[in-house]
Amino acid sequence: MGERPARRRVLIEDARRNDQYLRATWHDDRGQFVISTWRADVCTCAARISAADGAALAGLLVDGLADAAAAPAAAPPADGPAPARRPTGTAALVDRARRWLAGVLAPDRPGLSPRPGPPPADAARRRRSA
Residue 114 in 3-state DSSP? Predict the structure, then answer.
C-alpha cells in the first residue's frame, strides 16, 4: 500500500455562504503556509505563516472542534425538520485529529501516535486504479 499523496491546499467556504472563501496552501520549498481570503476568484488578503505557527493554528482548530463536540446540540426550530445527523460524530473527528496532531508534534512519545483504524472509504478505489 503506497503513501497518500500530500495535500497542499484546502479551500473553505465562509459559513455565511456569501461567495467568500479561506484558502490555506502549504509551500514545502519555503516551509510556510499561505492563508488567504478570497471573494469569488479574487484574493483579498494573504498572510504567510511558519510551520511552527501552523501547528499553533492546528491546535486552536482542534480545541475549537472539541468545544463544539462538547456543546449540547441546538434544538431544531419548532416549525422545521430536525437537522440530519452525520454518520460520524464530531467527537470522533476531534479525537482522531488530536491523536494525529500529537503524533506529528511528538512522534517519539509512546501513546501519542495516530489511532489505527479502517482505511478511508476511497482507499480501495485508489488501490484498484494504481
Answer: coil
**Cβ atoms of 22 and 44 closer than 8 Å:** no
N-terminal to C-terminal alpha carbon distance within the chain: 10
How far is the C-alpha of 99 from the C-alpha of 116, rounded, in Å?
10
Contact 91, 69 (CB under 8 A): yes
Cα gap 101→57, rounded to integer Å: 11
Beta-carbon contacts of 119 under 8 Å, excluding residues fewer than 6 positions away, are none
Residue 108: pLDDT above 90?
Answer: no
H helix runs in 34-84, sequence order: 51-70
d(CA 22, CA 13): 6
Residue whose C-alpha cell is 511552527 = 52
Q: How confident is the model at residue 39 (pLDDT cuts 50, 70, 90)?
A: very high
Cell of 48: 504567510
